[in-house]
Structures are given as structure tokens and as C-alpha cells.
Amino acid sequence: MPADDTQTFDSTVYYDDDADPSHIADKTVAVLGYGSQGHAHAQNLSESGVNVVVGLRESSSSRTAAESDGLRVETPADAAAEADVVSVLVPDTVQPDVYENAVEPNLEAGDTLQFAHGFNIHYNQIQPPEDVDVTMVAPKSPGHLVRRNYENDEGTPGLLAVYQDATGDAHDEGLAYAAAIGCTRAGVVETSFREETETDLFGEQAVLCGGVTSLVKQGYETLVDAGYSPEMAYFECLNELKLIVDLMYEDGLGGMWDSVSDTAEYGGLTQGDVVVDEHARENMEEVLEKVQNGQFAREWIAENQAGRPSYTQLRTAEKNHEIEAVGEELRGLFAWQDESEEDDEETAEVTA
């Protein structure tokens, strides 16, 4: 780690100088999947001098993209059979099937099974043999940013975890992999499969995806029900949220408070806990408990096995909320929408 006596962390953080590329330089890495994370890992690894083979179904629409990017493509089974490190970057919901049919029959003692999220290992949907290493290298960013940062000689913060160390080399190899995709340029935090999985699920449900969207909708509905125009409600409860989040992202909560008006700061400090009060904290603790005891995982697994009926119904209801129609109309009126559409097109190209 770089010398910095003024900075302390509860977790260990690794940088470029901590990684030894030799731990992966002479190995073949199979990247299974070529979506958001898969395309970034595969291209970054290849450009770092690692021998990469991409594993995709013969009918996959991503085969052409991977080959156009100069990568060799095989079936998942053939890629896994050839590889020393199998990086499983297909969606969580299909990983158990891919593992059972393509990976497990082709694992050899001393190989590495690697993930970017701990869900299936932590909840025992994938149970590897004892003679292979099991690691996780998880960039904390969408894949297109992992790729863009690498191309710009910048880094993306990431996580490193070792679930099973059969060879004694799992940690060093994982760190070398993290360096090869650019994460050690920014910093790699050491964690565990359990911690990454449970904090990730909780954050998504209670704050980032579930909590925020519910707060936005209820704020919007409160204003509209009180007689204010839907357009004003949209701007105040959704559109300006990005401005506040950007400030927090750049300089923390303190930086955000310093940037808004004194009126906004006083109102926020006095009324925020009125809205998100101890009842919300108690509800968050219930959400966390369901993550910790596996209830959410069991529900989600059962939902997929049943064909996703509740998921489909909830998605439809969300898309049909009035705020979506109002937002689509408003966004079409402003010049910044053109730039947003260009970004969406770029993202779609690398996640297809």
C-alpha cells in the first residue's frame, strides 16, 4: 500500500504496487458472458497481456461483438476446459445452470472459479469442489465505465474476496486479475463473499434502487395530490435528485450541504429525519435480516423458477406510474436529452 499515515481504513486497500502480474501472466482466463462486466473484463485483460477466451453460447448475439473486438470465442464448456481461471460473468439467475452444464465438468484441481458478485456462492446455489480456488473481483461500477476508465489510463475501485484457497495463490492471483482490469489503479478493497453479497443486496433494496425510487414516487404523489402541477412535482422530486447525488458523490454529505443554499440545508437538516424516521430504520433492519437469513434469496430463486410472475407485474406497475409519462414528456423538451440519448446508445452497444 502507498505510504499515507494520515489515512486509515477498516479494510485493507491494495494498489498497483501491491499486485504482481506474474500470478496471472502465464494463465488462460475464460470470461463467460459478454455483457456489461464481461466485455470490460475480457478487453481489459487482453490489453494487459493476459490470454483470454470468451465463453458464449453458439446462438449468442454477443459473439460477433466479441470477435469484432479481437477476442477468441468458444462455447462456455470449451472455454472453461481450456482455462486456468474461469470468470463467471453471466447474470446471477443463469449462473447455476451455466456452472452445472459447462463449468463443473471441466474444472481441474488448481483451477480458479471467479465471480464479480457473491450471490450464488454465498447462498449455496453453486458449490465448488474443494480442490479449486474461489475468488471474487468486483469493480464497483458498470462495465462500460470499467472499460472507459481503463482506456483513459484511469482506474475503477473494486473489491477482492477469497472464498476458497486450495492452491495458496488465490489472493495473489485475484489481485493480479484486479490489476489487469484496471482496478488497482484506483484501489481494491479486501472483503468477503458474505459481506459483499449482503451489503450489495441491502444497499440496492433499502437505498439505491428501492428506497430512493419509493421516496421519489411518494414525494411526487404528495405534491400532485395537494394540487401542484405534475411538471413541478417531477422537477423537484426526481429531476433535481441527480444534482444532489452528484454533489454527494464528489464531496460527501458535507460537500453537498456546503453547496446548497442555507435555506435548503436548514430545511433538509430539520425535516429529513421527520420523513425518514426511526420507523424507516426499523424497516431497513427487517430488509437486512431477510438478506442475512437468506429469505430474500429464496424468494428470488423461487420467483425465477416460477417464471417471474410477481416480478413482471411489479415492473409493469412501475412503468405505468404517472411520473414516467410526465418525465418522458418533459425530458423530450430539453437539449440535455440529446446528450443523454447518445450515452444510452453507447451503453446499449457494450451491454447487448
From TrEMBL:
Binding site for Mg(2+) 2: 200, 236, 240
The encoding gene: ilvC
Leading EC class: oxidoreductase
PANTHER family: KETOL-ACID REDUCTOISOMERASE, MITOCHONDRIAL
Annotated protein name in UniProt: Ketol-acid reductoisomerase (NADP(+))
Record domain KARI N-terminal Rossmann: where: 11-191
Any Gene Ontology biological process: L-valine biosynthetic process
Pfam families with a match to the protein in the record: KARI_C, KARI_N
SUPFAM superfamilies named among the record's database cross-references: 6-phosphogluconate dehydrogenase C-terminal domain-like (SSF48179), NAD(P)-binding Rossmann-fold domains (SSF51735)
Binding-site list for substrate: 261
Residue ranges of domain KARI C-terminal knotted in the record: 192-337
Family: Belongs to the ketol-acid reductoisomerase family.
Pathway assigned to this chain's UniProt record: Amino-acid biosynthesis; L-valine biosynthesis; L-valine from pyruvate: step 2/4; Amino-acid biosynthesis; L-isoleucine biosynthesis; L-isoleucine from 2-oxobutanoate: step 2/4
Reaction catalysis annotation: (2R)-2,3-dihydroxy-3-methylbutanoate + NAD(+) = (2S)-2-acetolactate + NADH + H(+); (2R)-2,3-dihydroxy-3-methylbutanoate + NADP(+) = (2S)-2-acetolactate + NADPH + H(+); (2R,3R)-2,3-dihydroxy-3-methylpentanoate + NADP(+) = (S)-2-ethyl-2-hydroxy-3-oxobutanoate + NADPH + H(+)
